[in-house]
Structures are given as structure tokens and as C-alpha cells.
Amino acid sequence: MNISTSTTIPFVKAQDTVFSATDSAQRKTLQIGQILLKMGKINRRDTEKIHRLQKKHGGLFGDAAKQLNLVSDRDVQHALAYQFNHSTLLPKQEHTMPELLITHQSNSALAESMRAMRTQLILRGFPSDQKTLAVVGINRNSGTSLFTANLAVLFSQLEKQTLLIDANLRNPSQHNLFNLTNKCGLSDVLADRVAIVGALTTVEALPNLSLLPAGTLPPNPLELLSMPKFSITNELFSDQFDIVLYDTPGFMEGTDALMIAKHADYVLLLVHKNQSRLADVEAVSKQITNNDIKIIGSILVDY
């Protein structure tokens, strides 16, 4: 499956959200007008105008509001997403972060391609009792981090408690994608510098998604990943979450990715159309399978 985009899509800091996870039970009962009011897109006087137009011509509240040029189509889409408990960002939040793309433009060809990948994983038995998946790119510039971040968002939108771990202890980027700090994370947990609970970060805009950043850049990343503490930590996460996704360094950079993959239930191999050579893909696949690691599938990307 090809995934292609040249668009950069923003995200948001957790504290910038208007709707919290605690009010999710109210979503089914709120009307579109109430949601648009809560979003600050319309006021009470606007509501009266919309109702008058509805009474005169009929139709839906959102359509009438758009006809009066009070809201945009995107505003209505966000309100519908909230009503259907579909995690998304408010329009005013979308400019605050770079490149997550699944949280809006949900009907784009790229978004559908990502959903197709999620469907293929589900049909192949992930997640089940096997909850951990390492996304492994062939090279450093394979687009692994961006792909893994969007896949994590997609699984969290299925109301799966999803944990995204930035296990790239050499060149981490998940904290940048989610506009979060990287003061502590996986490296600090493995080095016993911080407890797990102190390193996990929640994303309020996506109530089912948690993030464990890479943390302090260590001088010994491979050694940390080779310690028994990593295996123990992985088991703890498997017990606490429905899905655990590992963002990994490029496989050809060293043996970090192989060590991470060894602790995961499955590997999803990411091949970049313009970066990965066929010989390297074959060599990486062989090395992974020779270590009794299951490759659940591979995906070709060209962003």
C-alpha cells in the first residue's frame, strides 16, 4: 500500500483543548448547536437566527448555520466528530503543531490509506493477546516516526487504550510531533532515574492515547535497551494498555531496532519508496525472521 503526502498537519498541546475526556458521556445527548456554542463558533443570537431559518426552510442546524455564513464546513465536521466521540482537534488548535494528519482531513485519501493499514493489522490479529508492535524503518529517513504517531492516533480513536513509546534513543521526535517536553522518558525509566508514572504523558485531545517520550539522550542507548529492565517494562505496559506501539531507529543504523523488535509481539516493516534499497529490505527482513521475530506485514510509503 502506498501512502503519500506533502501536506504538514498541525497538532496541539494537551492543555489547549476545550473538551475534556471527562465529558465524553455527554456527547451523545448534545445537539450540534450546543457543541458549536461550546466551541465558541456561534452565540445565542446566532442560534436564534439559525432556528428561524430552519423553521422557514427546514434542514439541519449545521446546514442552516453554514448558509448564514456563521460557521464553516470544517466547524460542523468538528462538531460532528465530537458528537460521535471521534477524537479530533478544534479548528483554532490546528495551527499549533506540525505534522499529525489523522486528527483532521479525515476524509482525505491519505487518511483512508492509513485506516486501510489499521484494518489490515486488525484482520491479521493485532491487537489480541499480542499487544506490542514495533514499527521498523529500513533507513533513518524512512518516515517511521510520523507513520507510528498517526497509527497510534488511529488506534486510540477505536477507544483502545494506546501507548506510543519513542524508543529511538538516538534521534527522538515523538515529543516534537505532539508538542510535548522530553525532560524524561524511556531512557530515564530504564536507567531507574524516574518511575514509569512520572514519565508517561497523556494527550487530553486524544483521551485514549498516552505517550512515553524517549527522554534524556543517553550515552549508552543500546545497553539500556539490552537490559532486563526493558523486558520487564514492556510486560508492564502490555498489562496496562490495549496497544503498545514502538517508534524505532532505522534498522540500518545499528542494532537498536533489532533489540526493540525482539521484545515486541510483531514488527511492521516500513519501506520508503525513495530511500530504501531492495537489497537492504531483503537483508533486514531476513535478519528479523532469523531472530524468531514475527513480521506482521510491510508497508511502502513515499512521503
Structural features, described:
The protein is an alpha/beta fold and 303 residues long. It folds into two domains: 28-84; 102-301, 3-Layer(aba) Sandwich (Rossmann fold), CATH 3.40.50.300. The chain is built from 13 helices and eight strands. An eight-stranded mixed beta sheet has the order 1-8-7-2-6-3-5-4, sandwiched between helices. The two termini are 13 Å apart.
CATH class categorisation of the largest domain = Alpha Beta
Query: What is the 3D form?
Result: elongated
And the CATH topology of the largest domain? Rossmann fold
**Structural domain count:** 2
Q: Summarize the main sheet.
A: 8 strands, mixed
Radius of gyration based on Cα positions: 21 Å
H/E topology pattern:
EHHHHHEHEHHHEEHHEHEHE
Strand content: 5-15%
Helix/strand/pairing class, anyone?
alpha/beta
Termini gap: 13 Å
The fourth-level CATH homologous superfamily of the largest domain is P-loop containing nucleotide triphosphate hydrolases
Please state how the strands of the largest beta sheet are arranged side by side: 1-8-7-2-6-3-5-4
Q: How many strands in all? A: 8
Q: What is the average of the pLDDT values? A: 84
Residue ranges: pLDDT <50 for 5 or more in a row? 1-22
The CATH architecture term of the largest domain is 3-Layer(aba) Sandwich
How many helices? The count is 13
The portion of residues assigned to helices is: 25-40%
